[in-house]
């Protein structure tokens, strides 16, 4: 395949294997100052060689070794936007644990944020039928009318929210919805208010949108719920977006309606402030806790962007399907970004999404079965960790995570490992010693905790618990508990 490159680059002759000595070019006696690429010899074509300032046109069969790239003076700097963003720690740890498993180490992986259930068969069938029936073309950018109408129906029935299909944007996952929303509404210097512990992507999404994340800490003793007074004290004319996540990743906390009402009263005083309500875990909730959509509160519909998706409630992480609902003005702006970015979500996944929403309230029987299993696992883990000295727990009311305070162990030494000084070293220790993969709390903005995902079977969790206990007894809490 022909390639062309007009740039002039510096090369050392010893890096060029000149095969054709008949050309009379001595690679060791001459210094080539530059070589300019312009034509075709597979991917490494060149036309002329400049020798001591004189240009010699050569037909040469030279082999430029793969390490030629070392010699190219290429500017490899990246944009400030990339440099401002941290890679996802949850993805990094999951990848590390997967690599260990592939290398034969029997690691129990409790780091990932995805249900361990298969996508319900009725949904999978709908996806397969879409392929069989040739439903494999581009859809409208905002998503099919069929799916957007089904989403409107769902939001009305389950959340008490009234939207029309032109107020819905379907994207390749909820993550894309959140990024597009932030890109659409934030101007440089705006502030995005994020209660901590937070889902790892929120601050990075704020930075990608040229906004400044403003992190508001919460307390385990307050079930990691945002203190309205703290919120009030931090709001100003730069505050543009408040991100709420209930049920929460990573804490499993669920915001009671009364607290949301207090937050709404504060939000109402700030005309520039919008709210992004991430409700992706709404159906993974343990009674008596109930879910309230922020947009359903008086005066909040106009300023709320509700994000939801199929990944968690319907075990559809790989299908990449999520949606945003909000006032048309904002939704259209997000759609404009999407139209130049990814276009519409997969036609196949959208058909599957329609089937998912047709399964009944909160995913029908399949949803109930999944939540029942999650609840059993939560109960097991809460009981087990309560038996472990020095660990503080706020019992989660939703999602499938426990966010546990292990900070009483910081400062202790482990034989053959060294100092446990923070959540990261504790997670490394548990991976080394116990072969259990967990995520350090500092990834979520709270270094005193670690996150354990219970999207794994009960026997797997029982095995993990034994390993964690065995590893922890080898440590002495550094502070009396
Ligand atoms: C709180 C929260 N919001 C959004 C997402 C993104 O979900 P999706 O798979 O739809 O992009 C996740 C995924 O882990 C999440 O935990």
Characterization of this structure:
Its cofactor is pyridoxal 5'-phosphate. Pathway: Amino-acid biosynthesis; L-phenylalanine biosynthesis; L-arogenate from prephenate (L-Glu route): step 1/1; Amino-acid biosynthesis; L-phenylalanine biosynthesis; L-arogenate from prephenate (L-Asp route): step 1/1. The protein is α/β, with parallel strands linked by helices and 481 residues long. The chain folds into three domains: 8-71, no CATH class; 87-116 and 377-473, Aspartate Aminotransferase, domain 1 (Alpha-Beta Complex), CATH 3.90.1150.10; 121-364, Aspartate Aminotransferase, domain 2 (3-Layer(aba) Sandwich). It is built from 14 helices and 20 strands. It has helices spanning 68-71, 80-83, 89-102, 121-132, 145-159, 174-185, 201-208, 228-234, 257-267, 328-339, 347-357, 364-386, 423-434, 458-473; strands at 8-9, 16-18, 32-36, 48-51, 54-57, 62-64, 108-109, 168-171, 191-196, 212-217, 239-245, 274-278, 304-309, 322-325, 401-405, 412-414, 418-420, 436-437, 439-440, 449-453. Strands 8-14-13-12-11-9-10 form a seven-stranded mixed β-sheet, with helices on both faces. A four-stranded antiparallel β-sheet has the order 1-3-4-5, with no helix packed on it. A three-stranded antiparallel β-sheet has the order 15-20-19. Strand 16 (412-414) and strand 17 (418-420) form a beta hairpin. Helix 6 (174-185) runs parallel beside helix 7.
Strand content: 15-25%
Number of strands: 20
Neighbour order of strands in the largest sheet: 8-14-13-12-11-9-10
CATH class of the largest domain: Alpha Beta
Low-confidence stretches: 1-64
CATH topology call of the largest domain = Aspartate Aminotransferase, domain 2
Helix share bin: 25-40%
Number of helices: 14
- Overall residue-averaged pLDDT value: 87
Gyration radius (Cα, Å) is: 28 Å
Task: Determine the N-to-C terminus distance.
Answer: 69 Å
| Biggest β-sheet strands, sense, barrel | 7 strands, mixed
